Amino acid sequence: MEESNFNKCARARAAHEAYYVFFASRLKNSFEPLADKEIERLKKEIDELNKKHDNQVDSYDGLLDIEYIKEQIWALIEMKIICAFKFLEINSKQLIRISFPNTDKKGFSKWDPLNSFLKSKNIQPSTLDGYKEVNQLREVNNSLKHSDEFSEKEKGILEVKVEDDVTYDELDSFYSRVKAAPKTYLEHLSSAIHTELYDFNSKKINKLADDIASRMEKNDADLLITAIKSRY
Predict the structure, then answer these.
(1) Domain spans of the chain?
(2) Mean pLDDT of all residues in the chain?
(3) pTM (2 decimals)?
């Protein structure tokens, strides 16, 4: 027997809703543990070199070796930050792609157009848990990708203890503070999109009815009502 429209719609609705429920639990940043392991190895190399050249601060070769390793550590922390923001971008766009399939995604690689689109769907990104931290992550990410130095504004975001150049420890402390934020933000973004798509109250239903009535003749509205009822 052919499956009824009701069963088809109910199954599809349940599957779509399950996507939002389990969306965040499936997310994983696979680069971070690899980078952390290599950073730990490099830090041990620095410790060994410091012991080897103890009381030999004029050991030019030793100092060069240590500075070289520090540059490698900085690069790995930089990559962790860039990768974390890319993780946020990819999964934000995936959520929108699944949730609003007829939307033109051009420009969504930029923060403001993406947020403007979400606002047009009654979702306020700045109210979601994790937003402050992912916005800070975005600013530091942009600075690392496009500049050799941090501005005073960006230094104010980082865990900088002195007014000198930012150290890799300070950069890593910043990352440690914000690294959980992308997943937290995406979890709440997923929940907000689910609410917008699947939770209906009288205000939302009346607004939807007003929108349809403003564009549809009564005969077409009767057909629509019949078609919707046939799905239940």
Answers:
(1) 5-28+82-98+108-199, 202-232
(2) 88
(3) 0.85
